[in-house]
Amino acid sequence: MFEAVLVANRGEIAIRVMRTLREMGIRSVAVYSEADRDALFVQFADEAHSLGPGPATDTYLNIPKILEVAAASGAQAVHPGYGFLAENAPFARACEEAGITFIGPPPDAIDAMGSKTAARALMDAAGVPIVPGVTEGVADVAEATGIAEQIGYPIAVKAAAGGGGKGFRVALTPDDLEGAFEGARRESEKFFADSTVYLERYLPHPRHVEIQVLADGQGTTLWLGERDCSVQRRHQKLVEETPSPIVSDGLRQRMGEASVRAAEAVGYRSAGTLEYLVSGEEFFFLEMNTRIQVEHTVTEMVTGLDLIREQVRIAAGEPVSITQDQVAPRGHAFECRINAEDAERRFLPTPGPITAYREPAGPGVRVDSGVQGGSVISDMYDPMVAKLITWDIDREAARRRMLRALEEYVVEGVTTLIPFHIWLLNQQEFIDGGACHDALEAMSAENTPLPPRDGAPPPAPEAPEAEPVAERSLVAEVGGRRFDVRLFIPEKDLAAGGAPPPKKKRERKGGSSHHGSGGGSATGEVHSPMQGTVLSVAVADGQEVAVGDVICIIEAMKMENEVTAHTAGTISAVSIEAGQSVAADEVIAVIG
Q1: Domain map (residue ranges) of the chain
Q2: Using CA atoms, how far apart are residues 167 and 181, in angstroms rounded to an integer?
């Protein structure tokens, strides 16, 4: 077994992996960007190494730097978590070449399932049902038009290297196809450095159901039941549960057996997930995630397995710890993603400092988080604050337990999805097992106030506020070895005889506070609804616009957000350009 494992990730998944490593007696090594210097996962690790300043491309995606840290720390293996380098075949190969074990599937399996077009062809050959469409990339709009006429509308245009809702557009009619095709290509190039897209029939409102598999590379491949991930906004998951309320025993068995065939077809090893679109008793292959999933927690709750431990065991050459006959899911589990987003404002990201924080507890409640009071939700990364998971003997009991836990959860300083989850879990459609597609589509399209909460929880204790610090450099010698050391000293300690400033009293807001505002004003000013980067500007001075016309597209926390005109008129004073950073509430144009 390994003595030390480097966790090449951040936030809650880094802590999740480190907890299992600690239980296994394995030393955990963290890597962090300068923006995460004070993050909880850095403090949690047995050893932590800086990757320096800069965006993810210079830090968490910097393969040579991560491997350099692995070698220096004595780590024998790397766990990539999810996101970043988790499904990066070149990284897995680089680990092998450096003599470091990659805790995940073989690079060839990542390659095989990384291309959606190649994966569709492989699954078709393995007898796994696929949605009608093409298995090769489409070159241009003209070719796409011909294919769409054969398949029939509505058409989904999807990035071949995509996932997580990125590079995904829908054309309901022929008039929509060009915009959907170009939008999917642009987003695919930006997020995956690959503009290849393909077409398939779009199934309106299917259920999104996935099967968890484990394969040990010694001839054993297991399936561990299903997860229903149908509650989504903009093709990104919000709530997951197991078992699915719409999957029959027969359908579950067929999906499980198909998932084993799929994994074996690519020589899979480690934990992986087969995702399907389900309509009635039919299911169609969507994609395979060659990594641990965000929602792996609900499978752990009903099976009693630690999937991270199974990954580590398999990577160390050991077999899976159970047989298929021993897989016996029990009860029901939910996971709610507690994101720093404002559901009332089209799920816009709300980065900022957490001023108070208190997690729920009690029987059947689990919280996977990477924050505490004083933590900062950065606009450089995804908006997840934590994952709240509950288990009980059946679906209704688990739903009620989730509501109790959500009411106990306190996050102040940033707006989160906690009020949204409370609203959602009380909707009769959700109680009956529905996915609330129409309501979520409407909330994603326009501002939708939620009804006020009754019985708000008591205020959380004051959270420690981050103090301004100054950086100082020095050289230290420890055990005969020279080290360049940087010290981060509170500014109040640098001032001779200086007293700390008085602590500001924080205004209580009874739950999650709102962060910023956006949209238009009575004066015709158009404000940025969030902090982010301008991807494109669709207007110019003197241009006439109608209500709803796109002013610009702003990217924040890996999401594209359209800023639209709140009134009709003539554009003036456009103050932004593509590539520029903007702050929340910054005036970006005026409509006169």
Answers
A1: 4-103, 132-201, 208-445, 519-591
A2: 9
List all residues 6 or more positions away from 107 whose beta carbon is below 8 Å from its beta carbon.
89, 90, 92, 93, 96
pLDDT at 529: 79
Question: Residue 163 and residue 235: Cα distance in Å, rounded?
Answer: 9
Please state which CATH number belongs to domain 208-445: 3.30.470.20
Q: What is the DSSP string of 463-527?
A: PPPPPPEEEEEEEEEETTEEEEEEEEEEHHHHSTTPPPPPPPPPPP-SSSPP----EE-TTSEEE
- 3-state SS assignment for residue 260: helix
Whether residue 443 contacts residue 370, with contact meaning beta carbons closer than 8 Å, is answered with no
CATH of the domain spanning 4-103, picked from 3.80.10.10, 3.10.20.90, 3.20.20.70, 3.40.50.20 = 3.40.50.20
Residues 6+ apart with CB under 8 A from 479: none
Closest CA to 315 of 55, 52, 17, 76: 76
Find, among 535, 511, 510, 512, the residue nearest to 588 by Cα: 535
Q: Which of 91-105, 332-346, 455-469, 516-530 has the lowest mean pLDDT?
A: 455-469
Strand partners, 275: 210, 287
Residues 382-420: tens digit of each pLDDT: 899 999 999 999 999 999 999 999 999 999 999 999 999
Its pTM stands at 0.78
- 3-class SS at 127? coil
Judge whether 6 and 66 are in contact, CB under 8 Å: yes
CATH architecture of 519-591: Beta Barrel (2.40)
Task: Please state, for a pLDDT cut of 70, what percent of the chain lies above it.
Answer: 88
**Which of 221-235, 403-417, 463-477, 496-510 shows the lowest mean pLDDT across its residues?**
496-510
Under CATH, what is the fold of the domain 132-201? Answer: Dna Ligase; domain 1 (3.30.1490)
Please tell me the predicted confidence (pLDDT) of residue 171: 95
Per-residue tokens: 211: 């099967």
